[in-house]
Amino acid sequence: MTAFVRAHTRLSHASHVPEIQLYLAEDAFDLWEKVEAEVGRTGLAPPFWAFAWAGGQALARYVLDHPEVVAGKHVLDLAAGCGVVAIAAAKAGAARVVANEIDQFAIDAIVLNADANDVTVETVFGDMVDGDAGGADVVLAGDIFYDKAMTGRMMPFIQRLRARGATVLVGDPGRAHLPREKFTELSRYQVPVPKALEDAEVKTTIVFTPADGG
Length: 214
Hints:
- The protein is an alpha/beta fold.
- It has a single domain (2-210), classed as Vaccinia Virus protein VP39 (Rossmann fold).
- Helices cover 33% and strands 27% of the residues.
- It contains 7 helices and 9 strands, in the order αββααβαβαββαββαβ.
- The chain has a 7-stranded mixed sheet, with helices on both faces. It has a two-stranded antiparallel ribbon with strand order 1-2.
- The longest helix has 16 residues, at 148-163.
- The mean pLDDT is 89.
């Protein structure tokens, strides 16, 4: 699938983290159709891996600007998409970086993107939300509160991580299902985004950490 990813994207830079090169698509809907044709079935999830979403870009920017958060640590990028956050963690000096995804195309895109940035990122395919993040010291997740069901799974996961002393950071571009009262804001950014995907040209995106007792 790496050949497919390379053929239908082009190497460029994410707008808010120009230090990072990524294989990105220009047209989400055209690529979506090509993915479905490639695997021979319809009804697949959109190709989230082919775009640098605002939540991930804000989180990557925060990590690059605050390398002490990840330096020397075992880091998990959950629901990694294109892997921009994982790559930022590797560039910021993390000892080990693992990117997790449930889409094999995303796994292949992460491998290509890590290669393009000359960093080492391990990948794990499958759903990790019911576990303990593989023992990671730091768990990073961009744009995970996109629906009620996912929020219902993520909050117990985050609470388990916090209980064992892990650092958790999330990047959120104003999704309705974020339980805002359970988080503390660390930083906010104005992130340029493709209007076709977000119905906006810029998204105010906040990096949060769980509040004490949240």
